[in-house]
Amino acid sequence: MVVLKGHESLVTDGCSTYINKTGSSALATAGSGDVLSGIIASNLASNSNIFEASKLSVFLHGLSGEIAGFELTDYSVIARDIIRCLPKAIKIYQNFKSPIKVD
């Protein structure tokens, strides 16, 4: 398994490759990769499929960075801000993947 953090982060298991589209220059800050590693470790604890856990982690990391950048500007985001915005990113992800219920 390889995760390449960059403008469009890549996740590959050697057979399949996922290109992540979330993220911004806000993630180009000290400690951002450490935050991503922590998110991956956390997702691995609840998902035994390392490829799926890594794809979700990269997506959520990027979305958290986008949210933090929107709130603070991309130039002033630090790693702690990415962590602070992670619950918002998870909530957006959960709402997006849930079917819309109409009564």
UniProtKB/TrEMBL annotation:
Residue span, YjeF C-terminal domain: 1-93
Domain of life: Bacteria
MF terms in GO: ADP-dependent NAD(P)H-hydrate dehydratase activity; ATP binding; NAD(P)HX epimerase activity
GO BP annotations listed: metabolite repair
Keyword Ribonucleoprotein: no
Entry's transmembrane regions: none
Record keyword NAD present: yes
Gene3D superfamilies from the UniProt entry: 3.40.1190.20
Entry keywords, A to Z: ATP-binding, Lyase, NAD, NADP, Nucleotide-binding
InterPro entries named among the record's database cross-references: Carbohydrate_kinase_pred_CS, CARKD, Ribokinase-like
Record Pfam families: Carb_kinase (PF01256)
PANTHER family, A to Z: ATP-DEPENDENT (S)-NAD(P)H-HYDRATE DEHYDRATASE, ATP-DEPENDENT (S)-NAD(P)H-HYDRATE DEHYDRATASE FAMILY MEMBER
Protein's name according to its UniProt entry: NAD(P)H-hydrate dehydratase
